[in-house]
Amino acid sequence: MSVHFIDVDDFRFEWKLEDLPWDLTNGVAPGDLHGDTLDQTLTDGILKRSIPDTVSSKAKSASLAFLYLYMMLAHEGER
């Protein structure tokens, strides 16, 4: 999976789906509501395991938001 954030310094990055920290997510089942706060364990896992330290802070924030939403919405192995 890849992203291209044109408005964030033309940032591009690519991930292998199987390398994302799926073991840290509980996901949100269709029809269920997400809690009022972010899952800190998943947020930390994404930052530590999926986004290199060399990425700028803007690109890191955009990537974190994208991956977090993607991983929370993916369910039952539908990736």
Quote the beta fraction: 5-15%
| Structure annotation, total helices | 2
> Which class of secondary structure composition applies to the elements?
alpha+beta
Oligomer: single chain
Helix proportion range: 25-40%
Distance between the termini: 10 Å
Mind describing the biggest β-sheet? 2 strands, antiparallel
**Approximate shape:** globular
H-E order = EEHH
Q: What is the total number of structural domains?
A: 1
Number of strands: 2
Average pLDDT, rounded to a whole number, is 91
Give the low-confidence spans: none
Rg from alpha-carbon coordinates: 13 Å
Placed side by side, the strands forming the largest sheet appear as 1-2
Short description:
The chain has 2 helices and 2 strands. With about 80 residues, it is of the alpha+beta class.
Overall description:
It contains 2 helices and 2 strands; from the N terminus they run E-E-H-H. A two-stranded antiparallel sheet has the order 1-2. With 79 residues, the protein is of the alpha+beta class. The model has no long low-confidence stretch (mean pLDDT 91). Strand 1 and strand 2 (11-14) form a beta hairpin. It has one domain.
